[in-house]
Backbone:
């Protein structure tokens, strides 16, 4: 064999050995990297930080009869929040999830619900958590009015409508010139709608509705809906969610 062919053969052998070593190094590197990442993940611990604000649940608003929008106080230094729901089947709170904003739409089944939340931030391998903030609850969800909206019929009248409530005897419609003022009962209706007339064109009105249930001489009421802002001056449909 010539010297030139021998050199080429040796070069090919060396390249092959180098390639094998490179592949082996890559395999070892990723194996070690994944192991370190796994160890780092499992080594994250939780500690309570009493200086971290404990957020209070501010509101629980039914969007439908099977979904609730839960909102709580915002904590500036928090990386996220942990939301818990009381589980009536076990008598203890059930973890809903880590949330990175101060609200969460929760799908639910039932009538009464109680929530609590705590804030957290992560530093190194430690998750620092606050105490739980003040809990909040909502009752009679299936009796709560959802889907309240209106349509302008004329410059002096609007048409209110909302979702039906199962087994409700009827509904009470209330009106007020301000969102947090004293509401006046306009009417009690059997259907899930009502025309409101004799309005002043361009004037702002707020309406809210609640269901009622008759059982002989006894009458019980559902909670009021989220108030809706209405103006009889244009032809459009505005929902209670859009007017919040």
Residues:
């Amino acid at each position: 064999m010539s010297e030139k062919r021998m050199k080429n053969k040796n070069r090919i052998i060396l390249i092959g050995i180098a390639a094998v070593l490179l592949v082996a190094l890559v395999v070892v590197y990723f194996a070690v990297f994944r192991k370190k990442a796994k160890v780092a993940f499992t080594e994250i611990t939780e500690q309570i930080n009493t200086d971290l604000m404990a957020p209070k649940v501010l509101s629980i608003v039914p969007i439908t009869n099977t979904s609730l929008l839960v909102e709580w106080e915002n904590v500036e230094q928090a990386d996220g929040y942990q939301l818990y729901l009381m589980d009536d089947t076990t008598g203890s709170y059930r973890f809903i999830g880590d949330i990175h904003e101060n609200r969460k739409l929760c799908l639910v089944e039932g009538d009464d619900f109680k929530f609590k939340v705590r804030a957290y931030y992560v530093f190194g391998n430690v998750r620092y958590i606050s105490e739980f903030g003040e809990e909040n609850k909502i009752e009679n969800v299936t009796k709560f009015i959802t889907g309240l909206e209106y349509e302008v019929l004329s410059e002096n009248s609007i048409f209110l409508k909302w979702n039906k409530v199962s087994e409700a005897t009827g509904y009470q419609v209330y009106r007020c010139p301000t969102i947090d003022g004293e509401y006046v009962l306009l009417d009690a209706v059997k259907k899930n709608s009502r025309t409101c007339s004799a309005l002043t064109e361009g004037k702002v009105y707020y309406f809210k509705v609640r269901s009622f249930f008759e059982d002989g001489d006894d009458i019980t009421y559902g909670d009021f809906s989220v108030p809706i802002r209405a103006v009889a001056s244009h032809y459009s449909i505005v929902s209670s969610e859009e007017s919040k």
